[in-house]
Amino acid sequence: MTTKTSELLAVAAPRTVAVVQGISDDQLSRPTPCPDYSVRDLLNHVYDVVVNFQEPARKRKVDWSAKTDHLTEGWRDRFAAEAARLVEAWADPATVEGISSGMGLPQETIGDMALTDLTVHAWDLARATDQHLAVEPEVLAALHGFMDRMGDTGQQMGAFAEPVPTTPDATDLDRLLGRTGRNPTWRP
């Protein structure tokens, strides 16, 4: 079985995994479009994303307070395995039913949050490490829908920075990045 959430995560996760696996150890101290995060910091955050967003799929609360350095021996392969587990965790149709006990939001919205973090931070990491990230149209459409519903709330809660204006000819990805407070032209 699959859900819309797991299908979208299944499309996005391999792209993120490829970016993560393309990061060399000598790039870990580079800055990212997230001003408070180096590549290492953001990798640890994205690792937490793929692990922690498995819990709401199982209708369990998430403890985001643990700050673990995941970048130990074999971290790239472990990240790939956890990303696959994230996709699998959201495949049961029951995962998208109801309200999250930990966050008080619809389960489907929690899945969209995972997809947003996975995709946008993959772009952050790709840009910081001179890689390219292609995002499929169905993922972009879902993320724009999420931002339509939750963008203002996310900004008020500090998840997104002030939107960055984009040009009329901006790509769907650039418009999404601008909506999340990123400058699509950012370079290290």
Concise overview:
The protein has helices at 4-21, 39-52, 54-57, 75-89, 107-128, 137-156, 172-179. It is mainly α.
Question: Could you walk me through the main structural features you see in this protein, from its secondary elements to its overall organization?
Answer:
The chain is mainly alpha-helical. It has a single domain, classed as Four Helix Bundle (Hemerythrin (Met), subunit A) (Up-down Bundle). It has 7 helices and no strands. Helix 1 (4-21) packs antiparallel against helix 4 (75-89) and helix 6 packs parallel to helix 7 (172-179). The longest helix is centred in the middle third of the chain and has 22 residues, at 107-128. The chain is globular. It starts with a helix and ends in a 9-residue tail after the last helix.
CATH class category name: Mainly Alpha
Summed up, the helix count is 7
| CATH level-4 homologous superfamily | dinb family like domain
- Structural class call reads mainly alpha
Mean pLDDT: 95
- Range of strand content: under 5%
Order of helices and strands: HHHHHHH
Poorly predicted runs of 5 or more residues = none
The shape is globular
Helix content estimate:
40-55%
Q: What is the topological layout?
A:
Elements: H1 4-21, H2 39-52, H3 54-57, H4 75-89, H5 107-128, H6 137-156, H7 172-179
Helix pairs in contact: 1-4, 1-5, 2-5, 5-6, 6-7
List keywords for this structure.
single chain, 188 residues, mainly alpha, Four Helix Bundle (Hemerythrin (Met), subunit A), 7 helices, 54% helix, 0% strand, globular
